Amino acid sequence: MTAKRNIALWTIALGLSGAFAAVAQVQAPVLNGATEGAGTPLAVSGTADVSKILTIQADDRVQGKKDAPLTIIEYASMTCSHCRDFSQSTMPKIEEEWIDTGKANYVLRHLPWDNLALAEAMVMRCAPESSYYPLAKAFFGAQEAIMKAADPLSEVKQIARFAGLNDEAVQACITDPAGHDAVTNMRTVAQRDLGIKGTPTIFVNGDRIEGAESYEKMLPELQKAYKKATGK
Asked: Is residue 163 over pLDDT 90?
């Protein structure tokens, strides 16, 4: 592990423990502190194979049938209020009408805007795959409480226990170099190769939808993509 990445990982651990003054003194923070929808833009790559990026990857956590006609990929930050709203208001209907019926699958990828979102993403990916989406719903459901807590890590640990992760396991998750690299690389690809500047950004079979749209507004896009994929 490089010295810079070591500092970055300890930034997460210290910051989530409430030692925000200590974090402010760290010279190499893991993220740039951007707020949701206002990330520091990277130079967008013109050579990336976007169509390949927007298919299911080996390390994706997939909800639904992998061979479903539609693949819905969402880039989200766990501390993004719009992402929370999409998760709670729009996704239940998508799950009921599209994922549970085998018409679509869904992949939540991470574009964290801050260290808390990064840590939650690392915990989610560290947990058993069957707990990934239940944890996402739990973290979004408790988003306000977590972000307002004097000790956010304590709130994260409490929720993670339902996924079978004890306090020591959570601490190991948020200081794991491989987990750190997986999530930050995901963020880099989102910004550099897909040009994403805000969350949530959703792709339906590669077609981009920006923002936390209602199910009613998304429905025509889903129907159009489904017809294109199946002829139905």
From this structure: yes
**Is residue 108 a contact partner of residue 77, using CB atoms and an 8 Å limit?**
no
- What string of H, E and C letters represents the secondary structure of 159-185? HHHHHCCCHHHHHHHHCCHHHHHHHHH
Give the integer Cα–Cα distance in Å for 138 and 24: 29
Q: Alpha-carbon distance 190 to 147, whole Å?
A: 24
pLDDT tens-digit series, residues 185-210: 999 999 999 999 999 999 999 999 99
For 99, phi then psi, to 5°, come to -75, -50
CA distance 27 to 68: 46
Contact 72/107 with Cβ under 8 angstroms?
yes
Amino acid letter, residue 43 = A
E runs forming strands in 101-221: 104-110, 201-204, 207-210
For 110-119, b/e burial (b = at least 16 CB within 10 A) is bbbbbbbbbb
